Amino acid sequence: MPEIVEPEPVADERPADEEGARLIALNMALNGTPRDETARYLSQNFDLDNQEELLDEVYARVERLTGGIVDWALGRSDVRLVTPPERERRAGIVAVAPRDPVAASERLTRAGVIHSLRESAIRLSPHFYNTEEEIDRALHLLVG
Q1: Is the pLDDT of residue 10 over 70?
Q2: Is residue 11 in a domain?
Q3: Which end of the chain is less crowded, N or C, counting CB atoms within 10 A of the terminal residue's CB?
C-alpha cells in the first residue's frame, strides 16, 4: 500500500498587495457594503499598514462621485432620482430617470459613457478612477 504523505502546513501569510486590497475595497464600496464589513474582510485577507487610510480614500471617493450625481438629480425638475437619496441606503450605482431615457441612453452611448438603461432609468456606476469632469459630462448628456 502506498504511503500517505501529509502536506506541509502553509504559513499564515497574508499578502500586502495594496492595489489588490484597494480594488476589493472599491468593489465592496460600490456594491454598498458597509465600511466596517470591508475593514473586517481586508484585515482577514491582507497585511496592510495603511488600511484605514485606504478605506477613507475609497469610501470618500465613491461618496463624492455618487453623492454628486444624487445632488444634481435632486436639484433638477427634468430628472427624477430613482436611487434612494440617503447615503446609508445606496450603493455605488445611481439610477436617474430623465424625461426621455431612450434618447439620453443614445447620447451617452454615442459619447462612450458606460451606463445601462433599465426600467426607464439610466444607471450610472462611477468608478474610483472617474474624474468629476467625466461625471459632469455624463450628467450634461443625460438632459441633452
Answers
A1: no
A2: no
A3: N
Residues 65-80 have a mean pLDDT of 94
Residue 46 has pLDDT above 70, yes or no: yes
Within a 10 A sphere around the Cβ of 87, how many other Cβ atoms? Answer: 10
**What span, in angstroms and rounded, lies between the C-alpha atoms of 32 and 11?**
33
Type of residue at 71: D
The tally of domains found in the chain comes to 1
> Residues 77, 93, 142, 97: what is their CA dihedral angle, to the nearest 10 degrees?
-50
Give the integer Cα–Cα distance in Å for 10 and 42.
20
> Does the residue 32 lie in any domain?
yes
Q: What are 44's three cell numbers?
A: 482577514
Range of the domain at 28: 18-142
Q: Within a domain: residue 10? A: no
Examine the pLDDT at 3 and tell me if it is beyond 90: no
Spatial CA neighbour of 68 closest among 57, 77, 60, 58: 60
How many whole angstroms separate alpha carbon 31 and alpha carbon 25?
A: 10
Is residue 50 assigned to a domain?
Answer: yes
Residue pair 63/69 in contact (Cβ under 8 Å)? The answer is no
Residue 109 pLDDT > 90, yes or no? yes
